[in-house]
Design goal:
single chain, mainly alpha, two-stranded antiparallel ribbon, 2 strands, 66% helix
Length: 175
């Protein structure tokens, strides 16, 4: 097992990391707990498509992220969400029956079936984005513009680094 995964890094007590890294860690925990409540998703569902489940939003997000690289199949969604293809198929079928997604023949290979958003699915994604931006705007409403710009750049840099480390370690992790 990778030693960096099993043992926290030794921090020099005079280093900014001795205070900053644990603070970031605590803030990440708080953010994860609040994000886990999925308030933004619940509000979007309530506003656009009552009766939808939060797991449906995960499918929409997987579809949104992967459609830019090509056509999306149920298999692509299963892979993105790391779920069994039969489960992904059932979720997609439910979303098709609710008019959030639709199936259609691939333009590249008519034997292949792809999944696309319906206008309702597009509205739901737009509502999620609007809710998210509303939350962020409310949080930074009294921040100086420079602070918002600096935080945006630093947060993006942090998330880029987080994603890089995550992907490098996750590829060999089961489940």
């Amino acid at each position: 097992m990778n030693e960096t995964m099993t043992k926290p890094a030794e921090l020099d007590q005079d280093s900014p990391d001795a205070i900053g890294v644990p603070r970031i860690g605590r803030s990440m925990t708080r953010l994860r707990l609040m994000t886990g409540r999925r308030l933004i998703g619940r509000l979007a569902i309530e506003s656009v498509a009552p009766g939808l489940e939060l797991s449906h939003l995960d499918v929409l997000d997987a579809l949104r992220r992967t459609q830019t690289t090509g056509e999306v199949t149920v298999g692509t969604i299963a892979e993105m969400l790391r779920i069994d293809p039969s489960r992904a198929s059932r979720i997609v079928a439910d979303m098709v029956s609710r008019n959030v997604l639709r199936r259609k023949a691939s333009q590249a290979d008519a034997r292949r079936i792809i999944v696309v958003l319906t206008p309702l699915g597009q509205r739901l994604l737009s509502e999620i984005r609007a809710q998210k931006l509303s939350f962020i705007s409310e949080i930074v409403a009294d921040w100086p513009t420079k602070d918002v710009e600096d935080f945006a750049a630093l947060f993006e840099r942090f998330i880029d680094g987080y994603e890089e480390v995550f992907l490098s370690r996750d590829k060999d992790t089961p489940g």
